[in-house]
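FAQ: What does a ligand-bound record look like?

Like this one, built around nicotinamide-adenine-dinucleotide:
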Amino acid sequence: MGEAQIAIVTGGGSGIGRAIAHRLHRDGFAVWIADRDLPSATKVAGELGGPVPARPVACDVTERSSVDRLVREVVHEDGRVDVLAANAGVSSMRPFLELGDDDWDSNLAVNAKGAFLTMQIVARQMVQQAPRLGRTLRGKIIATASMAARQGAPLLAHYSASKFAVTGLVHAAAKELAALGVTVNAVNPGFVRTSMQEREVAWEATLRSMTPEEVVADYIRQTPMARLEEPEDVAAVVSFLAGPDSDFMTGESIEVNGGAFIF
Ligand SMILES: NC(=O)c1ccc[n+]([C@@H]2O[C@H](COP(=O)([O-])OP(=O)(O)OC[C@H]3O[C@@H](n4cnc5c(N)ncnc54)[C@H](O)[C@@H]3O)[C@@H](O)[C@H]2O)c1
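The answer part, i.e. the structure of the complex:
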């Protein structure tokens, strides 16, 4: 086995990011688990044993200086970044007519600006590093967008706008960075069983006068494959996009949602 490739997973302390960290580590990547919640990132790093390192690092993706520090530390320790999973995200739910600046700003700050900052700062590193032996690409970027990056959903106008922004960013960056040896793709999850979903179920139950169980049943009813999505379902597709079998793909968003939205 050659030297381990280096991956950064933002939002790696919970849910989908945790599953991506586990999966890429299993694939042989040395993984940096970046999260604004350092204890969570540390816990996930502790779950990953073996010869290839998994390291936690505090990072707030909304702050350029914080992302700069993250990438400097990774490059100082490991010399390069082969894969970025730009996954950190937040959500809230509010009827459109009641949507305030706070909800708009917080969702756009993490989901859109956070994706922009991490993708740009990591891409600046990727374009100046040599391809690995036997490879042509210098790096791969994979954003976690959403089914809401394809269609708006009630109560989620601000979240949906922030995720449409990620799709636009992926398309544009893919076209600019292709000639520089960096691919940029996205995964669009559906109804994934994570702490974000637990919060959304509680909000939606209140806002739609339903029980939490009825909300979950509605998510499953909307999913032709008839179950909630697991974080590992998303991580498996991220693994494909991080590996050599997707080398000729860029600017693509892959729907991973059990058929809940077919683009
Ligand atoms: N759960 C779903 O149904 C679902 C569906 C589609 C897309 N997504 C997207 O998947 C991604 C992961 O969501 P999840 O469901 O695992 O949520 P989660 O809340 O379980 O995990 C999100 C992680 O991101 C971290 N984070 C939040 N803001 C941050 C910041 N500013 N800087 C660094 N880290 C930050 C949190 O601390 C947390 O560890 C998000 O981008 C989300 O929008 C989730």
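Follow-up question: can I read anything off the structure? Yes, for example: The pocket of nicotinamide-adenine-dinucleotide is lined by residues 10-11, 13-17, 35-37, 40, 59-62, 87-91, 110, 114, 144, 146, 189, 191-192, 194-197 (CB under 6 Å).
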